[in-house]
Amino acid sequence: MNIIFQIDGGIGKCIASTAVCKAIKKQYPKDDLIVICGYPEVFLGNPDMKAFNFNDMRYFYEQYIEGKEYRILAHNPYLETNFIKGDTHVIKVWCDMFGLSYNDDMPKLHINDREFNFFGNQFGAEKPLMVIQTSGGARDQPNKYSWPRDIPQATAQKIVNVFAQQYTIVHIRRPDQLELKNVITVPENLGFRGIAVLISKSVKRLFIDSFAQHAAAALGKPSVVCMLDQQVVNRFGYDMHHNILAATPPNKPELRYSVLSKYNISGQPTEFPYNNEREIYNADEIIEALRNEISYEGKSAAVKNVYIKEKIQQENNVVTQRLRHLAGHIDLSNIKQVVDIGSWHLGQSMEFSSVFKEAKIDAFEPVPESYELCVNRHNQLDEQKKNRIHVHNIALSNEPGDVPFYVVGKGIHPNIDEGFSSMFKFNSELNVNGNGEHSLQKAITVKADTLDNWCKTNNVKEVDILWMDAQGSELLVLQGAKKILKNTKIIMTEVGLKPYYEGHTLKPDIDAYLEGLGFKELKSSFELNGFDYEANTIYIRSEN
Fold first, then answer.
1. Is the pTM of this model over 0.85?
2. Topology annotation, domain 301-541
């Protein structure tokens, strides 16, 4: 059967409708979905349907109607009671109209790698990208400004001036719309697909209720969005965005042209309920929202996943590079406990805290000098991160007690850093003078415990991510964590390939041990760690 879905309206409505298309295909997986709309470029690359432009439907009847089984879905959600009341999102209204199950699916745009590279190269800049759309006024408006939807020009300019030195700001606007200073105007011939890439590459975004905020939602890009009131948010907004409402109007408007909604989107002067445009939005509130990361508090798992994915893509550090391998393999929305073994300088704990804003992170570092470095860096953190990260001056192994530890560092040899300190001595291949004296290392005694003991003492019942840089003693650490590993989701670790310590535990033994505890290696995550003696890899529980 052919399901013919007609969409009357602008490009933003088309973007939102991609979530409806997903619901249609879930309910009718064997049927062909045909979309008729004004912006078929929105649906390019989408495997769920074929899209046609209203202006080019040659032979449509012969192809999809004549002699075919078909169903027409062509009702206007803007005329439905729940939409007019302003308490239901347009996507759900659409689904309800067509008798479709709606599970809060988000709209989705499909941008291929070639498009991303082709369009993305046009925005190469030394500074990070910030994208704004501050006006969506219709072409027939005299001043191209609609107060119920647009950000006033003076307010928008104040915001731009704050960020212009730090960011390359690209302004999405038509040539006939209001111009701002200190911005780059997006080329009019760039087209929708190019603008989508621009939004995808940006690190900060400020939008109004227009197509760009729908595109940002469809691309998984949390943004600051200015909306007139809560009804507009209910109808068109997305929980993933930081939605800022206009101030409550001080005056009663004259609504002679209002029919099914309070304000005319064309911005009729008689409807203006403020004393001046400066009253509509608080520029300082918008600036603060753009400066701060969007809060995870109260967000759904789906939205948290969007935020985490965005963070992993934006930041390029040791942790985020490794986390990218987990995309599509495991849900990262509920990471509450991270254990960082062999922290050295606290760097990875800090990187984890930036991605997982609700996680408690426990870092273990036995070397006194490195522990002091961790404590000093911890003291410099903001209070929120300081309260979530805890540093412990112990080694983790398969048995508790005092153990010898072999420290290296620039004070011992200028070419070997503290990261090579280990419970084991270097083997003879790495001995400086080759006479059996391990002159690259200084022997000290440190306190050790098992991770199982530590978890029991500290009432840690689950570990979401176990991060290890244990310099050859990985298997010993895992042997001392047999109980807690039953409630561990992800292990991200170095593994030895060739021994360069005496007693160095190697990958085949680690593989076998973890497989026996229900873990599987994520093969795509395996990568050499600078040389062929060791590698990085990830293990996840088999049921994930």
1. no
2. Rossmann fold (3.40.50)
